[in-house]
Amino acid sequence: MDAAAAARRLRAFKRWMRARGVVCSDALRLDASDPLGVHVRAVAPIHEGDLVATIPRGACLTPRTTGAAGPIEAAELGGCLALAVAVMYERARGGDSPWDAYLQLLPDRESVPLVWPADEAERLLAGTELDKIVKQDREFLCEDWKECIEPLISSGELDVHPDDFSLDKYFSAKTLVSSRSFQIDDYHGFGMVPLADLFNHKTDGKHVHFTSASDDSDSDDEDDDEQSDASADDQSTIENPTNSPSGSRVDDEDLEMIVVRDANEGEEVYNTYGTIGNAALLHRYGFTELYNQYDIVNIDLAMVTKWCTSIFSSRHARARVSLWRNLGYSGCTSQDAEYFEISYDGEPQLELLILLYIITLEPDVYDKLICVARDLIGDEEHDTIRNVVKFVKGTSSTPNSKLNGHDELHDVMKKFLHSESICSALLSLADMRESLYGSNNLEDDEEKLQACCIVTERKLYHSLVLRVSERRILYRLRKYASSRSKTKKRKHP
């Protein structure tokens, strides 16, 4: 969209807001001059506690407010799928839609990997946390369209042309729903909230918070926003502790935008979509952030067992994983995968270290652990960890020391699980995980990123940010694993 067209559509949207009772403070300015999209800027200082916008719930586009509400309810559609149908329907109505000026302001689709050309997505995302997820997304959405949307069109209950509900249009609508919708309340469910969705995201840097007019508290409940899984389908939530019972109307309660952090004149005013890493940001919203401290790298359990089989045997791998599970341990799970997280600072998940400890146990110690495994399992997870720590200490040559409580368990466990054999395994796993990115190295990707333009090469830029961040985490994992040998050299010159 060129600058003149963007300015024209923004003016139409402002007229639409006035007509629908959406109020935006004079201290804020909607800016359409940025080629990356509309954003919100402060034209005067705003301060914590200021009310800067009110949005009637009836102005929101939801499965309840859309003209397709009847067919959506009859088809028993819900959640994001129902909202995607509402978006497609109102877009198909064009100028007859009550949300036309709002929808005209939005892009046709967000540039999320879901709608990148398949070959381009495969090339740019190879090895990253999104590599498999995007492929699975396409399969699931195709199934949704085939099973839910195609029958709805065939029924003739929606007076629209079938092309307006094509698979491609569904993908486009899904990108808008994924990146812009909010969970409003029990009655409306997921909805598009005009004006609210124009505030860009900044991790740990939000200026405004959304709440209902009936909520007297302006506290910021970050726990509602935390998301780390790239495949999570939870949407942003408008805080409303007084949610009405399911099925009741709350259209008389306006949504409010409250300032929770001061912004100076000229500053962009941000919301936050949660404390999430770049994989989730790119997956759902189509952008990334440099130096995102919430980034992680996952190492699949399948990769761990593959490494174990290459060193020992398939029988050894099955037996050791089985004992690990019998102790009550498991990795993180998403869809059909089980994995372990490597944190931003390169520290491996405790459950991975315990598994590697069991895998690398000498046969005699392994036999002892099998005999006492049942007795080590406690009522709570920290009880099991405490008991395993005691067993580890009992089979270690390191001098014993007392445990002073649950807070020390993690640190003590990491100390005893920093053996040479475990660190060697971590280095091998880091190499295996790194190989998924292809033949180039971290330095190559860093050079490409520095030379990349975020405006003209948007997909390349954000995929490089994601890959560079992940590879830097693997670099830190290697430092973590290598510190064992360095420590030994310092102790024994």
UniProtKB/TrEMBL annotation:
Its EC number is 2.1.1.-. It is found in: Nucleus. Residues 215-232 have a biased composition (Acidic residues). Residues 237-247 have a biased composition (Polar residues). Its main location: nucleus. It comes from the Eukaryota. It is an enzyme of class 2 (transferase). Gene3D superfamilies: set domain protein methyltransferase, domain 1. GO terms for molecular function: protein-lysine N-methyltransferase activity. GO terms for cellular component: nucleus. One of its GO terms (biological process) is methylation. Belongs to the class V-like SAM-binding methyltransferase superfamily. Histone-lysine methyltransferase family. SETD6 subfamily. Protein-lysine N-methyltransferase. This is N-lysine methyltransferase. It comes from Urochloa decumbens.
